Request: fold
Amino acid sequence: MGGPVAQLLWKRHRDLVEGLVLCATAARFPVRKELGRVIGPFSFAMSLALSGVPYQLRRQGVSMLLRSRVPAAGTAPWAFEEWERHDPAAVIQAGLALGRFDSREWIGGIDVPTAVIVTTMDTAVSPRRQAALAAAIPGAVAIEVAGAHRACVEDHRLFVPALVEACGIAGAGRDVPQARPQAGSRTV
Reply:
């Protein structure tokens, strides 16, 4: 959720932001309307219900549920460990907030150097939406990484050079080391 947080930081505190690096993110995260009408109220009710269960008990229950699904879900074990560290009710509420996030009305006003890392094999955030975010920000540079949403952890040899390049772009005009072009990333 770092992309929406960074976008909102620029919107709410422009004087504190000198550049942006947005990775594997978008201007909005839509849920199909018909699905949203069911999931939204259900998720809200679930988060309220979970809030009534003692904290330790709800963490144990979610941990058991997650552990039983690790092999079948195809999700990396480290991701489940991260989910286990957080309050399940708060995770559901964060997901609901992410579903409501939409910066399309104001994203074109970003006026700081910006780089957008587009993970081209992403199934969590569509690469098309990532590229649309880059196109909506005046002067933004899109840097493609041939990896999935988790590339920052699972394909670090591809991701880190792109991140260093992006930091150099976002730090333009400041004393930030510029990255040399690396295999696995390219400027679009």
